Amino acid sequence: MTSNGSNGNPDSRKEEKKLYYHGLKEQKKIDVSKLKYVSLVIAVLGVALILIAAQSAKAPMAKISDVYGNYLMNYAVVRVEGNVVSVPYVSESGGKLSVTFSVNDGTGSIDIRVYSPVAEKLIKEGKVPFPGDRIEAEIQLRVRETYTYGMLQYLDGLKFISKAYSPNPPKVTTLTEKMANEYVYTEGLVTSLNNVSSGILMEVDTGSGRVTVLIPKVLLVIGKAPKVALGDQVKVAGVVYLYKGSSPEIVVRDLKDFTVVGAQQVPQVSLDELRDHVGETVSVEATLEKITYKSGQYLVTVSDGDVSAVLYTSRDVLAAINPFQAGSGSRIKAIGLVGDNGTLKVSKFEVISPVKPELSRIGDLSSEMLGRIVVIEGNIVSTANVGSNLKLVVNDGTGEITIFIPGSVVRELDENVKGQLKAGLGVKVAGYLDEYRGTLEVIPYTPEAIIAYRKPIGGTTETTTTPSPGQGGNGTITLSQLPSASGTVKLEVKWEAVYYSKPNYLIEVSDDTGRVNLTVSRDLIPNPLKTGTGSELEITYDADKDRVVSIEVVKAVASPLLETGEVSSDMLGKTVVVQGTVKSIYTGSSFVKLTIDDGSGELVIFIPKSVLGDRTFNEGDIVKIGGYVTEYRGTLEVVPYRGDAIVKE
């Protein structure tokens, strides 16, 4: 059968060409397969050009008031220009770094957040904005129901228009609100020193006033904290920032601008040479004579041979002289700045040769002893709150005297001590003798100068009767029987909490009859890595000396192992175990503070040097620590009270 198609027939194909291309000359065939490659190259180049154009195009400039709270702008990228109005805040939560600062453009303020890894580059390259800087930032907006913030997504999106900085800043001796955003420097003696959430906060006595200085935490993420202590002479430059809008402080923006001159380099002079050293930092050695208070300052009268002088200081500095241990007649060293009138403003005291004051009979105290340090002991007759201050009337059987506890001391008293300052209970107080409207008063200027007893002093603490079964001797008694007990007794109790009330540790225990605090040596308190609060204890107690003799664990309850971010204020007094990486280290005169983090949040570990021993730490160390939870000025801390509760992994 023959096909009608032309396939396979050359003559037929020729005929087709004549039909379709009649009158045309046949052209050479073109290979179009290469065009697809050409088109692909053109497309790629086009996309690249679009991307380059998009990257070079600037985001629109926006007013903060127009974008804040505007849900239509959520995730939009805009540029804002304004002045930095906050100290940069750094967080290392979850093991990731973030930096936050606020910008105001005149229409409103917005927080700008920088997250890892851009945050690390921001700090390493020294591009952290500080108060007073004027910047332009390209940010991506996050608009929430009650809060709007911007995210700086790349470092080149931040430009400094101007910086609050000067290579030759003016010297200041006091700060005012009018100095806001100025770059200045000051020098003087450190009179107070604290670790706060925003960094290291200190007061510097310039001789003409006091200047607050903040070394922000953002500088300590990479750089090491300077070794500074009370009494050190420092020179510091930074920008003046108004804390809470009204309290001026110098914020250091570079650790190179903070210089410490150790107190050991301060020259020593005699009392009669002070007038020759006006404006200089010096030290003197003299005998402590009297203490008084006037116009917000403590006046300490000292003598050296026939020469005497009055030294001016603050309560925080004076607290270095524990009146229980060092009384009038003690040899002390004072370091400070000599004022224009030749008086020494002391920023640090050291006790060289203490003279321990003896217990005085209240009836023997007289106005001839005003200013001298005395120690009294007796039962509280009455208490009264006078503003923030606390007044006690104490009787020791020879007479009565008023104990005036300043509000600043009341605020630092342990809550357990406060709870025991009640009428009918005993108290022991050390302080200087003062007179108010013809009435003698003892003024304790430090919390360490107050020891509160949980029972009366005198005949009610002793008994001449034969102990009943289960009382006295070596018998086991209940807590309700403890006030009338004598000799050595045993207690079967549940351990509730542990506290530190200078100069003693207290353990809170309970049984079916009540709950009390017992004075105890820290070495006797069970190791919190093995035994925690909630455990059942058998305590041997000396009722006459009001002190724990020994502790035996009957049934151990382990301290909970918590994440560093889990520790909370409802755990105060409870023992816990935490483990984390050391992020920062601060060494004080009598303690070391570690900031550790396991990825859940930062936690402060406060280690007294009596517990620390010869242990040392480095940033990056992994530690496991058992201790009790406490709170200092709003910051939660875990305090180990035994050296064997500190383990470096």
TrEMBL record:
Transmembrane feature ranges: 35-54
Molecular function terms from GO: nucleic acid binding
Keyword Plastid: no
Keyword Coiled coil listed: no
Domain spans labelled OB: 576-639
Pfam families: tRNA_anti-codon
Keywords, in A-Z order: Membrane, Transmembrane, Transmembrane helix
InterPro entries: NA-bd_OB-fold (IPR012340), NA-bd_OB_tRNA (IPR004365)
Protein name per Swiss-Prot or TrEMBL: Nucleic acid binding protein, containing 3 OB-fold domains
Organism of derivation: Thermococcus gammatolerans (strain DSM 15229 / JCM 11827 / EJ3)
